[in-house]
Amino acid sequence: MSQLPDHFDLDDYVTAVLAEDLGHGGDVTSANTIAEGARFVAVMDTRQDIAVAGLAVAEAFFRRLDHRVEIERLVEDGDVVPAGTDLMRIVGDARAMLAAERSALNSLQVLCGIATQARAFAQAIEGTGAKVLDTRKTIPGMRALSKYASRMGGAHNHRMRMDDGLLIKDNHIAVNGGDIALTVARAKAGRHGLEVQVEVDRIDQIEPALEAGADRLLLDNMPPATLREAVALVDGRVPLEASGGIDLDTIRAVAETGVDYISTSKITMGAPAVDIGLDYALC
Q1: Which of 12, 66, 88, 172 has its CA 20 to 30 A from that of 19?
Q2: Exposed, middle or buried, 102 (CB in 10 Å: 0-12/13-18/19+)?
Q3: Annotated catalytic residue: which of 59, 134, 220, 260?
Q4: Is 169 assigned a catalytic role?
């Protein structure tokens, strides 16, 4: 069973999301239409083909509002399932379940959407030897979960935070007067213990970056022909990552240039939520 990230506080997430949805008065519809103590039996299912991620998150909402709820998980995170698949069966207090329903579904729909998108990107470059990476472009407050879902879909995590990877971008170089060698040298001199990755958008920047000690290059917004030129020039001296303008229509051509990694924000910022529902089930 896949585990949520150690640094992710599920209790805090559930508290914040429920507060957003329930407000101060709670689910007034259920409170005024359903008898206290009524039981509800439901099945959560997907209405489209998906890669699964976030079941534990969805469960946490139901458990928060009904500590005696019974949940039978029918699939696991990382599974790939067709439309019509039942994901979990839930039995519990009707008022509590309906109050938790939207928060649970919203979270699961978004996370399964990311996992499904990640799987599509990973499948698109199968056999090329390249790996697809996600980025730090995530919905604020959702990074740990988004990156988890990306991983469940078959992508690889890049930097989680700004302190776990040193990536020199164009603005860092610009502040140093456009001197890429100086910028890399300063980074290499720091006592951080991290590899130094450098973003380059022109072929003539590659050798100065390498001579200054760059450990990895990010080839930004280069067309496939230029990427092939860069791959030949570097000749395996450092890993190469391609980024910029990557989507499902272009990623295969990029992967076939010989780069080691391809990063795209489309996994975490461009993934549509999938269609998952919670419906009353006859006992």
Answers
A1: 88
A2: middle
A3: 220
A4: yes
Handedness of CA 31, 34, 37, 42 (dihedral sign): negative
The catalytically annotated residue of 63, 73, 102, 252 is 102
What domains are defined for the chain?
Answer: 10-116+271-280 (3.90.1170.20), 123-269 (3.20.20.70)
Q: Is 131 tagged catalytic? A: no
Is 102 among the catalytic positions? yes
* Short-list 215, 217, 190, 196, CA closest to 206: 217
Among candidate residues 63, 136, 137, 188, the one labeled active-site is 137
Query: What is the pTM for the complete model shown?
Result: 0.94
- Per the annotation, the verdict on 199 as an active-site residue is yes
Look over the chain and give the mean of its residue pLDDT values, rounded to a whole number: 95
| pLDDT for position 3 | 78
The 10s digit of each residue's pLDDT in 204-260 is 999 999 999 999 999 999 999 999 999 999 999 999 999 999 999 999 999 999 999
Which residue in 39, 47, 161, 169 is the catalytic one? 169
Residues 238 and 236: their CA atoms lie apart, in Å, by: 5
- Token pair recorded at residue 251: 């990623």
